[in-house]
């Protein structure tokens, strides 16, 4: 049985809930693998017309769980003992290509409409969960941020920033580590709708139920049309290219500190506290 994900199907809607509220739904390997399995189950179930992704608790997701050593978060990486030699870089690349870039791309291309309902903080790795969704409904207290530049890396593994926010706002998000509010995200076209926090679940479900009434093949073709157009423009190739640049950041961080990320805990804590007050 899943430990970190709740899964339910009713009225043609598969509701996937991140269920690690004590850690602000921070993502470690078990949660990500359970989450991917839930997406796969929804994709394979003919009774599911729409997928609704939500997070339990105050925050949608605090991103990747960095409470432990990045080098030992998986058995594969533990084998190289945290040593970022050629073998270590390869293992890190393979792991992130599967669990971050790979999962996000898979979810984005599932031929069923998906909706993300976002409240509170959606930080860094949290963006990898919402950007693949077709529609984002945000509570009025939602905020989106990517403070990974503080860690010596140029941004999270799935580079949706430029596509979702436009180049200048994307640079501001990355350069300053300051969160983008729900209203600003809506203005930029990243969020479809902003609603009061108390109405978030009801509004997201109402939209899911409305879409579930449409013909499933027509929905799949409409989604394919938009996604394929974005790929022709270059989104797919660009995100892969930036993922490779991201891996260079890990090598640079290790060269400076012996760790695959540079963690300025004080700066990150200060940014988090400032975001909480926003």
Automatic annotation (TrEMBL):
Gene3D superfamilies: 2-enoyl-CoA Hydratase, Chain A, domain 1 (3.90.226.10). It holds the Pfam family ECH_1. It comes from the Bacteria. This is Enoyl-CoA hydratase. It comes from Novosphingobium bradum. The lineage of its organism: Bacteria, Pseudomonadati, Pseudomonadota, Alphaproteobacteria, Sphingomonadales.
């Amino acid at each position: 049985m899943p430990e970190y994900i709740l899964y339910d199907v009713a009225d043609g809607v598969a509701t996937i809930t991140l269920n690690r509220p004590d850690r602000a739904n921070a993502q470690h390997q078990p949660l990500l693998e359970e989450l991917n399995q839930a997406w796969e189950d929804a994709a394979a179930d003919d009774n599911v017309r729409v997928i609704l992704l939500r997070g339990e608790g105050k925050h949608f997701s605090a991103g990747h769980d960095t409470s432990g050593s990045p080098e030992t978060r998986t058995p594969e990486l533990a084998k190289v003992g945290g040593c970022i030699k050629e073998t270590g870089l390869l293992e890190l690349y393979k792991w992130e290509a599967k669990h971050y870039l790979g999962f996000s791309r898979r979810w984005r291309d599932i031929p069923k409409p998906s909706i993300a309902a976002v409240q509170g903080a959606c930080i860094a790795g949290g963006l990898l969960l919402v950007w693949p969704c077709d529609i984002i409904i945000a509570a009025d207290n939602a905020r989106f941020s990517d403070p990974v530049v503080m860690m010596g890396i140029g941004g999270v593994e799935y580079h949706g920033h430029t596509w979702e926010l436009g180049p200048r706002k994307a640079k501001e998000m990355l350069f300053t580590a300051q969160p983008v509010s729900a209203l600003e995200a809506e203005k930029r076209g990243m969020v479809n709708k902003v609603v009061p926090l108390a109405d978030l679940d009801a509004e997201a479900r109402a939209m899911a139920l409305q879409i579930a009434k449409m013909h499933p093949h027509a929905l799949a073709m409409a989604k394919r049309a938009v996604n394929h157009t974005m790929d022709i423009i270059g989104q797919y190739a660009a995100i892969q290219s930036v993922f490779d640049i991201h891996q260079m950041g890990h090598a640079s961080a290790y060269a400076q500190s012996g760790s695959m990320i540079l963690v300025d805990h004080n700066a990150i804590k200060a940014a988090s506290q400032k975001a909480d007050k926003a």
